[in-house]
Amino acid sequence: DLKAPWMMSYSASSASELWAFSSAGLKRSRRAGDSVVTNSGDFLLAIVKRGHGVAILPDFITQPALEAGEIIEVLPGWTPSSLWLTLAYPPYTKLPPLVGLFAEHFEDYVLKSIAAPGS
Questions:
Q1: Cα–Cα distance measured from residue 62 to residue 55, given in angstroms and rounded to the nearest whole number
Q2: Which of 117, 118, 89 is nearest to 103 (CA)?
Q3: How far is it, in rounded angstroms, from Cα 22 to Cα 75?
Q4: Per residue in 105-119, pLDDT tens?
Q5: Which DSSP symbol is given to 6?
Q6: Residues 78, 29 contacting (CB under 8 angstroms)
Q7: Please, what's the b/e burial string for 37-75 (b: 16 or more CB within 10 A of its CB; e: otherwise)?
Q8: Helix locations, 13-58, DSSP H
Q9: Could you write out the DSSP letters of every residue in 60-97?
Q10: CB–CB of 27/21 below 8 Å?
Q11: Taking the CA atoms of the chain, what radius of gyration do you get in angstroms?
Q12: Per-residue pLDDT tens for 82-108?
């Protein structure tokens, strides 16, 4: 029942996302619309809060709004495919300590967010 014009893409490119879901061994996919494609989860969340679309976003972005009743989960019981995150920085012959520290902090933050959504 998802309609492409309402499905907004969270993407670094200008191409719409392919949403893939699974539930109890079933798999479904649907191409999102291309009217809203952005790499800003906060921007997509603001649009969703106003009732102007549907987006797949990480729990650490949506959890506060879900708990406050500002948004609802549209497909409970269906799990979207995993999100791949990459931290990119220039090549170094020796990694600067601050870059290494930030990378460790970022990885810890993401792993904690996945293990305990909303924390």
A1: 10
A2: 89
A3: 11
A4: 988 887 776 665 544
A5: G
A6: no
A7: bbeebeebbeebeeeebbbbbeebbbbebeeeeebeeee
A8: 41-49
A9: HHHHHHHHTTSS--SSTT-EEPPPP--------SS--H
A10: yes
A11: 16
A12: 767 778 888 889 989 999 899 899 888
Residue owning tokens 């220039």: 90
Per residue in 12-56, pLDDT (tens digit) is 788 888 999 999 999 999 999 888 999 899 999 999 999 999 999
0.90 surpassed by pTM: no
* Residue given tokens 């079933």 in the structure block: 26
Nearest to 36 by CA among 71, 4, 72: 4
CA atoms within a 13 Å half-sphere pointing along the CA-CB vector of 39: 5
Identify how many contiguous H helices and E strands the chain contains and give both numbers. 3, 6
Q: Are 24 and 16 in contact (CB under 8 A)?
A: no
